[in-house]
Amino acid sequence: xxxxxxxxKYYPFxxxxxxxxxxxxxxxxxxxxxxxxxxxxxxxxxxxxEALRKGTLWxxxxxxxxxxxxxxxxxx
Length: 76
Description:
By secondary structure, the protein is mostly loops. It contains one helix and two strands, in the order ββα. It has one domain (7-70). It has one helix at residues 48-54; strands at 7-10, 26-29. The protein is elongated and about 55 Å long. InterPro entries: Spore_coat_CotJA.
C-alpha cells in the first residue's frame, strides 16, 4: 500500500579526534503506521492465522523485523 521504505539512514558527523572507529552510516526503523494517517475502509486483511503470526490484521501495517547483524556483520 505504501512505497516508503521502513528503514532510513543517516550519516553522522565524524570528528577528527573521536577515540573509536567511526560508524559511517546509521540505520533506524520507521514503522509502517507512520505513513497511514487514517484507516481507509476496505483494507485487505490477512487470514486470522496469518494475522496472529504477523501481529497485525492488515498487510499495509505489517513491518517485519529484519536484523542487520545477520546480513554480514557490523554496519559500517
